[in-house]
């Protein structure tokens, strides 16, 4: 994929006006209040992984509407002190998979909660275990278009609520330090982590690589790669639905969440990424913390990879994330 978005010098200054519905905050406050009416933590059962240096639990917590959401919780074995928890969200089409698949964070000394994605898990990876009982609303067959004609029915309202509830669940898990909870993810997972940063005021840190759901109005105009292409295909058939779709998307735009965030943040993007275009990632980074009501914006940084597509910096970016998070949490302890 050749370079197709704005040049890097323009991206570094790119802070477009992104339309927000007047009731954005009320919409999310009411949604999360409804979810909080359900006790968050359900079953927490030991899982056998064959990895003696790690302890893993199969966790169920209450997400949107009290629906059960599955997750893997993993900690370094033999450590009794409370640990920071890195809550990770998975990419589009993936489920939580098997507990031994994602070990970077627990091997680095953190507790790790990996949330399943409701109604996904069938496109790649090792599957998922969380159904979506609310998926019959009008819209297309893909997650990105389920219920897209009304923000109350939209799939990402449910998944973002699950992501926030995963933070609440992490605080309640054994061996977790409730004051040091980190949200992270790549692609869809990065978009969920970014939404969490805008909705959870006491998050310790955000790590978002190639986040989905950013500057959505532009994304559906400049790329037809999935999953944005699924929205494009839906509108190609439902030609009279554009206004309703754009209205729904305005409630889940990562730029709106970014503006409200207060936690320090680490971003990454590939400049040839047509799956999650870099202009959306930079828009979220450049707006980050601008409307959080605090006198100073949170610390943030972004790393761009000029010759990479959706894979971005891969292991190079992870190395940067590990060093950055260690410095952020140490600085937080020192203060």
TrEMBL record:
Binding site for substrate: 92
Domain called Acetyl xylan esterase: residue spans: 1-326
GO biological processes: polysaccharide metabolic process
Pfam families given in the database record: AXE1
Molecular functions per Gene Ontology: carboxylic ester hydrolase activity
Active site residues per record: 187, 273, 310
SUPFAM superfamilies: alpha/beta-Hydrolases (SSF53474)
Region (Disordered): 121-142
The protein, known as: Acetylxylan esterase
Native organism: Catellatospora citrea
């Amino acid at each position: 994929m050749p370079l197709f978005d704005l040049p890097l010098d323009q991206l570094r200054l790119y802070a477009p006006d992104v339309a927000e519905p007047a009731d954005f905050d009320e919409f999310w406050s009411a949604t999360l209040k409804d979810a909080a009416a359900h006790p968050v933590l359900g079953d927490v059962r030991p899982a056998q992984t064959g990895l003696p240096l790690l302890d893993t639990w199969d966790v169920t917590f209450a997400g949107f509407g009290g629906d059960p959401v599955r997750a893997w919780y993993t900690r370094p074995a033999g450590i009794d002190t409370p640990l920071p928890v890195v809550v990770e969200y998975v990419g589009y089409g993936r489920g939580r998979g098997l507990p031994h698949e994602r070990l970077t964070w627990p091997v680095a000394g953190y507790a790790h909660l990996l949330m399943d994605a409701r109604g996904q898990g069938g496109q790649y990876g090792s599957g998922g275990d969380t159904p979506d009982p609310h998926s019959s609303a009008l819209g297309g067959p893909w997650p990105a278009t389920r219920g897209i004609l009304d923000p109350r029915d939209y799939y990402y309202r449910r998944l973002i609520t699950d992501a926030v509830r995963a933070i609440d669940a992490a605080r309640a898990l054994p061996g977790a330090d409730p004051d040091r909870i980190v949200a992270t993810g790549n692609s869809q997972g990065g978009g969920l982590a970014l939404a969490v940063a805008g909705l959870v005021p006491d998050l310790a840190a955000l790590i978002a690589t190639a986040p989905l759901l950013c500057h959505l109005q532009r994304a559906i105009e400049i790329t037809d790669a999935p999953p944005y292409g699924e929205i494009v295909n839906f509108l190609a058939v439902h030609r009279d639905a554009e206004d309703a779709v754009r209205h729904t998307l305005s409630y889940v735009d990562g730029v709106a969440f970014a503006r409200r965030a207060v936690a320090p943040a680490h971003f990454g993007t590939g400049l040839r990424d047509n799956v999650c275009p870099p202009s959306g990632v930079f828009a979220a980074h450049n707006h980050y913390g601008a409307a959080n009501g605090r006198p100073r914006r949170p610390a943030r940084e972004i790393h761009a990879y000029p010759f990479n597509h959706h894979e971005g910096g891969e292991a190079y970016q992870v190395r940067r994330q590990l060093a950055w998070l260690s410095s952020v949490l140490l600085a937080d302890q020192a203060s």
